[in-house]
C-alpha cells in the first residue's frame, strides 16, 4: 500500500520536497521542525526522550521512506513487478511512521502554551455526547493504549461518514486511515517504547496518564471543526 493511500490532503504538506521521480504526486520528505523546544514538555516528557524521538526515530522513518520511494521509482521504470510489490511494506511502515509522528508533535504543547487545557467548543461538546465526559474518554484511551500488545498507537478520530468520534488502536506505524477511509485523526498517542522507556521504563500506564498534561486540544479542535463543519 503506497503512502498516498494512507494520508488525507494536507497532512504532510510541511516538509515535503519535490524530487525528480517518475511517480506522479509522490515526494520525498524532510524532518519537520518541532513547534517547541525539546525540553518544553517536561516533566511529562523529558527533553532527552523528545530529542531522540524526533531527531533519531522520526528521521529514520523519513530516511527509509525516501530510500524506498526512490527504489520504487526505479523498479517501475524497469518494469520490475516483484520489487514493486516487495517495497510496499517498507513504504507503508516508514511512510506511516512519518505520517503518525507529524501528527503526534502537533498533538502536544507545553503547559504554559495551553497544553493540557480541556477542549472547548464543538469538540468538547462532541466528547461529552459520545463518551459522557472528557475523563471517560481519557480513561478509555488510557486503557486501550495500555492493553495494546507490542507497539502501536491509540487514536481519537472523527468518522466523517457517521459524524461521530471513535477511539481506535493501530499496530506498528499503521495510520488511523488504515482502519477506515472515512477516519480522520484528531489526536494520537505513540505507545512504542521509544516514546517513553527512558523516563517511564516499562510502566506504560504512567506515561499514558501524564501525557494528557501536555495534550494540545486546541489543535485537535481545529482539525475537528475543519473536518466536521
Architecture overview:
The protein is α+β, with helices and mostly antiparallel strands. It has 2 domains: 47-109, Helix Hairpins (Orthogonal Bundle); 112-226, minor pseudopilin epsh fold. It is built from 7 helices and 5 strands. It has helices at 47-78, 81-106, 121-131, 134-147, 197-200, 204-211, 217-227; strands at 16-17, 28-29, 152-159, 164-171, 183-190. Strands 4-3-5 form a 3-stranded antiparallel beta sheet. It has a two-stranded antiparallel sheet with strand order 1-2. The radius of gyration is 18 Å and the shape is globular. The model is unreliable at 1-14 (pLDDT under 50). This is Superoxide dismutase.
Q: In a few lines, what is going on in this structure?
A:
This protein is 46% helix and 12% strand. It has 229 residues and is α+β, with helices and mostly antiparallel strands.
Layout of secondary structure:
Layout: E1 16-17, E2 28-29, H1 47-78, H2 81-106, H3 121-131, H4 134-147, E3 152-159, E4 164-171, E5 183-190, H5 197-200, H6 204-211, H7 217-227
Antiparallel strand pairs: 1-2, 3-4, 3-5
Helix pairs in contact: 1-2, 3-7, 4-6
Characteristic key phrases:
229 residues; alpha+beta; Helix Hairpins; two-stranded antiparallel sheet; 12% strand
Amino acid at each position: 500500500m503506497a503512502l498516498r493511500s494512507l494520508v488525507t490532503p494536507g497532512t504532510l504538506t510541511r516538509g515535503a520536497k519535490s524530487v525528480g521521480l517518475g511517480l506522479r504526486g509522490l515526494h520525498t520528505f524532510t524532518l519537520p521542525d518541532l513547534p517547541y523546544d525539546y525540553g518544553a514538555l517536561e516533566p511529562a516528557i523529558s527533553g532527552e526522550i523528545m530529542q531522540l524521538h524526533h531527531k533519531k526515530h522520526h528521521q529514520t522513518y523519513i530516511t527509509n521512506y525516501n530510500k524506498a520511494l526512490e527504489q520504487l521509482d526505479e523498479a517501475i521504470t524497469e518494469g520490475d513487478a516483484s520489487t514493486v510489490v516487495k517495497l510496499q511494506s517498507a513504504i507503508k511502515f516508514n511512510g506511516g511512521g512519518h505520517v503518525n509522528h507529524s501528527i503526534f508533535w502537533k498533538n502536544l504543547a507545553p503547559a504554559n502554551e495551553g497544553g493540557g487545557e480541556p477542549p472547548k467548543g464543538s469538540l468538547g461538546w462532541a466528547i461529552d455526547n459520545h463518551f459522557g465526559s472528557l475523563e471517560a474518554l481519557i480513561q478509555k484511551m488510557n486503557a486501550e493504549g495500555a492493553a495494546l500488545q507490542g507497539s502501536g498507537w491509540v487514536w481519537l478520530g472523527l468518522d466523517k461518514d457517521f459524524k461521530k468520534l471513535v477511539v481506535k488502536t493501530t499496530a506498528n506505524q499503521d495510520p488511523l486511515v488504515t482502519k477506515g477511509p472515512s477516519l480522520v485523526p484528531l489526536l494520537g498517542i505513540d505507545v512504542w517504547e521509544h516514546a517513553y522507556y527512558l523516563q517511564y521504563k516499562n510502566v506504560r500506564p504512567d506515561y499514558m496518564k501524564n501525557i494528557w498534561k501536555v495534550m494540545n486540544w486546541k489543535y485537535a479542535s481545529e482539525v475537528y471543526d475543519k473536518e466536521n463543519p
